[in-house]
């Protein structure tokens, strides 16, 4: 204990020079320095010289505790700061402490307290005439209404905040962005996506005035609205950008929202395995954020996911948990209390407006005595505003012209890239169809022509037709495989694995006496991406090698191996324990075709065999 007191006394002169001087600036700077912040805030500083210094310490301690996820402790610290700070002396920190409490209690799911603190912040900001904080507090209350699913009230309060900022000469871009987001999220969950996007896109207009990381909520909100409209690809781009910045800042509440949206996109697209992974990530950050709102969203989306997947038992389980949580949030006494708080402050607001009206009348009487002077001042002010407006208009016009030119160049570049990708895709499809499907169709036509002019017995003719029919079915299947590959910009290793598993299953049905197995190394990354040309040629080579083993090897066991080397490159091998063959026959049984496919994708093709010792075909 003595050692801690001694350390604190040593820190005080260096950290608080002349005690009160620049204490707020130094504490603000400490928040951005993680190592020193922990040392300063976790070491209980004692003997702070003034009540104000102690209040500032607890205010910044509460912000630090929120950053590291100790939100309930952060509530206590902000309340302690309010006991020690005064509205008149420290309105900047006093009002923000109430704003912090509104946010913290909303995250923790205690919305009646959140509403109370939001109203207190609004009243405090109004008392000192701080327009930015009044608008911010209206937006805070709007978000509480949003979390309580009263979206009409949420839109009403956030728009009040916007009205204040529109009338104010020096609105904060951060406060305006926060208020626009509040309007947008209420419209979004009110099933009015066009209105939601209208306000979210207005936030992006503030981009030159703020850093990119300040837009993480907007990026996620735009993605969420587009997701509800079914625009999954566009939605994912916005949410990925938001996740990038939130991961850098470590904001667990926002990360939980990002993963939840990405999981929803995945299961709506039918990618259940990816959705499962993303749902696990969502739950991790929901727990870390301690947010009842995010837990509610997670449970509901798990219900939708399990329902989509067809697991009705799990779906019902998540729905029951969601209903229990929602019931606990919307208890009658809580809703009643919030209504009483709102009514109380509406009465106070009307009384205040009446007092302000009387004061305005008295002030107008005084002003009427110097009307001529006032008119002259207004005229000069009008001329200044007119000149300033013209300057701003001219500057904005030049800026818009520059932006339009840049947008046109980007559009031309995007069009060229799109055409190049389409041309590459056409070339790949043409090569695949010409080399494989075209040759097989030519064989079918030739065989049919041969039947037309040759004379066969009825029995021989039937066999010939059966052979052509079987070959045609095989050609159709290969065409489907080609279309499967060509429809994808990329094929994951997981896709290829599933396709090969289906191939083996068909082989088992055809040859039940042969033992088949698909093997993959443990720990392989199944999300490795192959381009569509690589994917279809790997599959075709494995298919040809498997068919050769079945038809010619007389094997009892056939295995397909998928291997990944140190450079994350993939190789596939087909091994059988059959009779093997002479290496001089390597160009038979489709070997040249398989070798050609390997060369087409820049891979090495190998065959290891000898009579009586089985065969190993590999490409990679």
Automatic annotation (TrEMBL):
UniProtKB keywords: ATP-binding, Coiled coil, Kinase, Membrane, Nucleotide-binding, Phosphoprotein, Signal, Transferase, Transmembrane, Transmembrane helix, Two-component regulatory system
Cross-referenced SUPFAM superfamilies: ATPase domain of HSP90 chaperone/DNA topoisomerase II/histidine kinase (SSF55874), TPR-like (SSF48452)
Coiled-coil segments: 345-372
Signal sequence bounds: 1-20
Catalytic activity: ATP + protein L-histidine = ADP + protein N-phospho-L-histidine
InterPro entries, alphabetized: HATPase_C_sf, HATPase_dom, Sensor_HK_TwoCompSys, Sig_transdc_His_kin_sub3_dim/P, TPR-like_helical_dom_sf, TPR_rpt
Record field: transmembrane: 373-394
Stated name of the protein: histidine kinase
